[in-house]
Specification:
The protein is an alpha/beta fold. The chain has one domain: Aldolase class I (TIM Barrel), CATH 3.20.20.70. Helix content is 34%, strand content 12%. The protein contains 13 helices and 9 strands. It has a 9-stranded mixed sheet. Helix 2 runs parallel beside helix 3, helix 3 crosses helix 5 and helix 7 packs across helix 8. GO terms for molecular function: 4 iron, 4 sulfur cluster binding; catalytic activity; metal ion binding. InterPro entries: Aldolase_TIM, Elp3/MiaA/NifB-like_rSAM, PqqE-like, Radical_SAM_PqqE_MftC-like, rSAM, rSAM_sf.
Length: 356
């Protein structure tokens, strides 16, 4: 599918943030989640209309239901069943709370859930719960992972990389393997929401982590991908003898192969790039993705500026547009996490710390 995907017409991933309500207070939370649901969340009927629109992207469109904690809504199974009936591949990223029971997972499985993504940000209970801000989160997450395995629901593990978690990565890798996950999705911190109080790793450390992730990917029984770190593809291409899989994923980044619908219907290039290009249900998410000025500019590799614009890998990578926006206010600027120097480039090197 990736090799045939026209990113001007269709995203690889469409994320819908069902709600920002969540019981946890995670240090990195992009959504700055709240205890209660927002009164202006998309309703069930409006959500189904959004899924109808998503179907227009084409059969098998991947839709990720996220939050906050999407299980704070009672209509999750209904929405998954509806989307599945529309030919969409429906996946879910719940929080590790008491709501994530075996019975609830069985209900989601019956509705047609294609994959469950759980967050693990520490290699043991103490490290994970401290990062998540809730005692018992690790235990709930492990129980949900076991239930997913018993039900035959494919499991994805998401991990945030920052100064507070980077030393935990080897232990988390072992957990990913032990849990039988099919994919480890590694998120490199973008300082938005509560994540502004966390410390990003520096570009040299990021390069070493990406090189290590590539080594893991060659031997592991699960896939490895990065989020908001597209230069992982450049690292992998430099180190890999078989670059076919990476070539099939060229250029996927915020606004280019990726779109995000907020809990109130605003359409963003990414949940980490809070610049609206329009809103549903008044507008079609298909039209916004394909035709809005913001999305079109983000898909233009030649519109990138600074070091990213000069880089010979810009079509492979293109840098994190979200991190560039967080650091400079310009989504087309250079990604401050990347330490690579394009051949012959003698312009300014971006500050790795976000602007105040």
């Amino acid at each position: 599918m990736r090799g045939k995907l026209d990113l001007d017409r269709r995203p690889l991933v469409l994320i819908w943030e069902l709600t920002q309500a969540c019981e946890l207070a995670c240090k990195h939370c992009r959504a700055d989640a709240q205890p209660r649901r927002h009164p202006d969340e998309l309703s069930t009927a409006e959500g189904k209309a959004l899924l109808d629109q998503a179907r227009e992207f084409g059969e098998g469109q991947l839709v990720v239901l996220s939050g906050g904690d999407p299980l704070a809504r009672e209509d999750v199974s209904e929405l998954i069943e509806y989307g599945t009936g529309q030919g969409l591949r429906m996946t879910l990223t719940p929080s590790g709370t008491a709501s994530l029971t075996r019975e609830r997972l069985a209900d989601l499985d019956d509705a047609g859930l294609r994959r469950l993504a759980l967050s693990v940000d520490g290699g043991d209970r103490a490290a994970h719960d401290a990062f998540r801000g809730e005692d018992g989160s690790f235990e709930a997450t492990m129980a949900a992972a076991e239930a997913a395995r018993d039900l035959g629901v494919p499991l994805q593990i998401n991990t945030t990389v920052c100064a507070e978690t980077v030393e935990q990565l080897p232990a988390i890798r072992d957990l990913v393997d032990d849990l039988g996950a099919v994919l480890w999705s590694v998120f490199f911190l973008v300082p938005v929401g509560r994540g502004r109080v966390l410390t990003p790793i520096d570009p040299d450390r990021a390069e070493r982590v990406m090189s290590w992730l590539h080594e893991v990917s060659e031997d592991a029984g699960f896939g490895v991908k990065t989020t908001e770190a597209p230069h992982y593809r450049r690292v992998a291409l430099e180190e890999s003898d078989d670059d076919g899989d990476f070539r099939r994923r060229l250029g996927i980044r915020a606004g280019k192969g990726f779109a995000f619908v907020s809990h109130t219907g605003e359409v963003f290039p990414s949940g980490f790039l809070p610049q609206s290009a329009g809103s549903v249900p008044d507008e079609s998410v298909v039209d916004i993705y394909r035709d809005s000025d913001l999305f079109r500019r983000l898909r233009d590799d030649d519109a990138l500026t600074g070091k990213c614009g000069a880089c010979e890998y810009r079509a492979v990578c293109g840098g994190s547009r979200s991190r560039a926006y967080a650091a400079t206010g310009d989504p087309l600027a250079a990604d401050p996490l990347c330490g690579y120097e394009p051949a012959g480039y003698d312009g300014p090197v971006p500050d790795q710390h976000p602007a105040d």
